[in-house]
Design a protein that fits this description.
72% helix; transmembrane helix; 0% strand; Growth Hormone, Chain: A; mainly alpha; globular
Length: 483
């Protein structure tokens, strides 16, 4: 196998890549602050820009344009997960990463050369930035396969780094406030593509990293010694790398009844499990997208249109997002611990091991719903100082959301369908996320009704962990019971 220094270098540089580039879209609030300072879409407003003004009424038409850009970009973030995964599966790591680099560099260059007169180009640049970031994440998730039993912890760490990368736009904002032009910041991000290219050819495989990793496997810097070995093991790799995060062992196969019901992709999609999981993911994700997309307008309103108050709260939000990289692995470690515990109990009692595996996802699902409810309650109360608590609950909820999503899909359905189910649930949830725009528009006139409606939807997410708990209890009592 490739040496430990090479694997550690791959791990750390991959973490840095996810932390600095993959999920920068979710720092949108910080970037909107800069765009407004540069008077992007100012022609939609009735006021005259005053460069020295600290108080300036929030322009609804301008805010709606920024919200629409974020809606389109966040939709692409999820919807393109399925084709991005296909590209990675079909054309392997090098091709997928070169496409990611092209999209990312094109996006950063486009933003660098935009201006208030060319603000419409953001509708092109932000989706390209998002899709490039998704491909960076997908190609890096396989790095967990190099570390065996620590695979799930590393993958959740990478997902957390993806969330934390939103802090990059905070750095852009802080530099802008210190007279570093927006163009300079994005030209620097464009130049970083040289680093991405070097990492692609020196620290990443041409194909996929198989799981488990064979003793003679080599990649990257070791290719001149192990090219044939990498090709020889390619047929044995797992097609969807995220399924490794919580992949059950052979002894944890579903019981006969469950195996009968879930043997086809169609039966998985039409199952009650999948339907309620889609509801769970869509509602929680909708809250997050709605909050991020409207946060600048919310802070402006609560601060009485005082930009000097909006700025520190915007910074605080971006700083809390950075801690997602520290929060996410706890979810993976919680589920790994519960899975091992329940599996031992199942062996001692002779109960269904598949039910024990499924039960390990329930606390994660319920905790994510609870965090989302707390976050939603705080966000619905129009008190500026309370938003600090909202920021903390939001980053905790979001850091648990996507790891919990992958965990449930791998535990509740056959591993051979994980890639298709993951892509489908992300694509369908992306369609649901599109309603954030009309909801946000409505909230400007009827904020109480929108908040109550979204809170009721948040309560609906608790149905999912409750039903999963009932199912795994039934399976424990009767291993052959159908789920």
């Amino acid at each position: 196998m490739a040496g430990l220094p090479l694997r550690v270098a791959t791990l750390l540089t991959g973490l840095l890549e996810c932390l600095c580039f993959a999920g920068v879209l979710f720092g949108w609030t910080s970037l909107v602050y800069v765009f407004k300072a540069e008077y992007y879409f100012k022609d939609l407003c009735n006021y005259e820009p005053l460069s020295n003004a600290t108080r300036q009424a929030d322009c609804k038409a301008q805010s709606d344009m920024f919200l629409l850009i974020f809606t389109v970009a966040s939709f692409m973030n999820n919807f393109m997960a399925f084709p991005a995964g296909y590209i990675f599966d079909r054309f392997k790591t090098t091709v997928a990463r070169l496409i990611a680099i092209f999209l990312y560099t094109s996006a950063t260059l486009t933003i660098a050369f935009t201006s208030a007169d060319l603000a419409q180009l953001l509708f092109l640049a932000m989706p390209m930035l998002t899709v490039g970031g998704i491909l960076f994440l997908i190609t890096n998730l396989q790095v967990g396969n190099l570390f065996g039993k620590h695979c799930s912890t590393i993958i959740t760490l990478y997902n957390g780094a993806f969330d934390s990368s939103s802090a990059v736009f905070l750095i852009v904002k802080l530099l802008y406030e210190r007279d570093i032009k927006l163009r300079t910041s994005f030209l620097f991000l464009s130049v970083c593509s040289v680093w991405h290219v070097g990492r692609t050819f020196l620290l990443m495989p041409r194909g996929h990293i198989p799981y488990p990793v064979p003793p003679d496997y080599s990649y990257g810097l070791c290719l001149r010694f192990g090219t044939r070995k990498e090709k020889r093991t390619a047929e044995h790799e797992v097609r969807e790398l995220q399924s490794k995060e919580f992949l059950p062992s052979q002894e944890e196969n579903p019981g006969p009844g469950q195996q009968q019901e879930l043997r086809s992709f169609r039966s998985c999609v039409l199952s009650r499990r999948f339907a309620w999981h889609l509801v769970w993911l869509s509602v929680v994700q909708l809250w997050h997208y709605f909050f991020i997309g409207t946060l600048n307008s919310l802070l402006t309103k609560l601060a009485g249109d005082d930009r000097e108050q909006v700025s520190p709260y915007t910074n605080a939000f971006a700083i809390t997002q950075f801690f997602g990289v520290l929060c996410a692995p706890w979810n993976g470690m919680l589920m790994d611990h519960l899975k091992q515990k329940y599996q031992k109990e199942a062996k001692q009692t002779g109960s269904s091991s598949s039910a024990a595996t499924l039960c390990s996802t329930v606390p994660s699902l319920a905790l994510t719903s609870l965090l989302c409810l707390g976050f939603a309650l705080c966000a619905s109360i129009p008190v500026l100082q309370l938003q600090y608590a909202t920021f903390i609950l939001q980053v905790l909820s979001r850091s648990f959301l996507y790891g919990g999503n992958a965990a449930f899909l791998t535990q509740a359905f056959p591993a051979e369908h994980f890639g298709k189910l993951f892509g489908l649930v992300m694509a369908l949830s992306a369609i649901v996320s599109l309603i954030q725009f009309p909801i946000a528009t409505r909230s400007q006139s009827d904020p109480l009704y929108v908040s109550v409606g979204l809170l009721l939807a948040s309560l609906l997410t608790f149905v999912h962990p409750f039903l999963v708990y009932r199912e795994c209890r039934a399976q424990k009592a009767s291993p052959s019971a159908s789920s």
